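Let's do one together. I've listed all components of the complex below, 538 residues spread over two lines.
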Amino acid sequence: MTTQLDYDVIVVGAGCAGPAAAKKCAELGLKTLLVEKSSEPGGKNVSGTCLNMAALGDTDLHYIMKCPIEREIHSMRTYQISDDRMTVFNEMPKSGILLLSIRRDEFDKWHTEQARKAGAEVRLGIAVVDIIEENDVVQGVVLESGEQLRSHVVIDGGGVNSIVGRKASLIPKRSGQNMILYLTAAVYLGEEVINERFRDEQGGYCIEYYLAPGIQHKTWPWIFPKKDTVTLGTGGYMTKDLINNEFPNVQQYMQNFMDLPIVKKKLAGGRVESWGLHLEFDGKIAQKTKSGLILTGEAGGFVIPFLGEGMPEAFFTGIYAAKTAAECIQKNDISQATLSEIYEEFIQENLFMQGFMYVGEENKKSILSKTDEEIVEIMQSVVMGGGFITNVVHTKWLRGVENDSLEDIEDAQTFLEFIQPYRQVSTDYLEIYREMRAQAKLEEISTKGDEI
Amino acid sequence: MPADVTFHYYEGERGEFIQVIEERCIGCGQCAKFCTTGVWEKIDKIYKPIHLKKCAECGACWNVCDADAIIFGEPRGGTGVKFTHG
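Okay, and this is what the predicted structure of the assembly comes out as:
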């Protein structure tokens, strides 16, 4: 007996991966449902507030450049503070836009709307509580109402603690050196004040990172400027010493961060509009597919918290999951082996993801084994050496020299050549960006025209 | 600026979306240790999510519970924590 299917694909979660997947599924002609537990897309999301232009340069992600943007970010500033001095490093490309800062509540709404416009059905405010699994094949999902929905493929974009991934036994419990717990605070300062306090020497705007004792646990506290608010974030790896007598909770790290004299000055006159709390997984999910199921974004472990990277990985994997689903449904083969083969091939071909995953892993290796004092020292050389990418090259190279290993040296050389395109902000991206912004404006005008 | 963390919530009854399987809880208190909002309280020998209304749904408690004593579900009908400006 064949059971009647409700959809070709059910996508769970309207974060970064879900709408990208649902949009692509609909564009590929699949009958698609996007289901989100929150009443509004983005209502449960705090993280990922700057889009990396190097990733948006990928053809698959050009449309993202049309999203509601808070600010164009041109440079990065790092404050390294010890008891007796403060050192400030500026990393500034000669030209171009490094990042786009966004608000997740606005962005996720826009993105979900793109999926709906492409033809996906969207249901909000209803949680998926279980999967339907028969003979080791995922057949659909169970909603909190008890309603059962069946599809050829389920795409899980449910985030770090996704119920779908957990019910399918693909997402395990994680803590220690693989999980980061962090708090965010959105502080209202007003547009004019932010223009003044977060401007770089070339007249652009910059994001800021801070390194100081007592403001983090092996991570990088940050301040990201939006239009009229700035977002602060800090926390740390969930090892047993994240919480202790001196730091009874992560609020204490945030308090110390906010109390740094330079940060106090930056936030003077401001008020906290909203707090956020989030877990981020810094490791790999062993198996990202099951027959009838594909994990994407944070649910699939596609996030590099160490580099603050996660949104592009979620967009990419969402889109690749959609393409994989379409191909497998066409072939009438949604087995784990086939889904996995096609999905992994897309991921392997993405140089941005491969490069950044490598950088994240190598840097994490060199950080986690060190004490806070040693980390500050490393960070100094990292920042002075031009960032995390250089750190990977340097450490590999030095290891090679120390151990007399030509392999390590060659590895460093190969990686340096490979990563070159991502060290610069190409002007090609800028042309595409301008074109996309112009298109977004036109679409906005035509939508308003329709309303009239 | 005081880091007195408070969260916004959608209106509506959230339901018991975090529960403890009492016979499994060994009272180690990891859930309470890693909870940022003070949801957990020790009652007799085990921990219970007494102040569930303060929960921000991060899932730290579920992740650190080695005894597998925590059921971590979803708030009902689109309710629960509401993040803005993120």
